[in-house]
Amino acid sequence: MAIDWDKAVLEPLEAVFGEGKEPDKRPMFYPAVGARYPIDGVFDAAYRDVDLADPLVGATSAQPVLGVRLSIFEVPPAQDDQVYIPSVDKRFLVMDVRPDSHGWAKLMLSEM
Fold it and tell me: Among 3.30.960, 2.60.120, 1.10.3210, 2.40.10, what is the CATH number of 5-111?
């Protein structure tokens, strides 16, 4: 039996940790092409990523990230899309989209 990761794991995770528990506080997605629409996601203002370009010297950087279920998008998110996060009252540019193999992606963001 195959696991439905979206229904069994990702949707409940988003329900507990996600932004926008109130309808007027949901993040707004602005695709580079097309109309804006509300989405849900898990926002982290200072996600830390470890870069092991040199195995002897690890480097970390912090940047805002929005974790999202890919199933909620009309068209998959892409670089240069934008996201407004009401909880911090900021609009961000999507710098990179990092999907995993279970239907989740990290939108690596940059402040505008």
Answer: 2.40.10
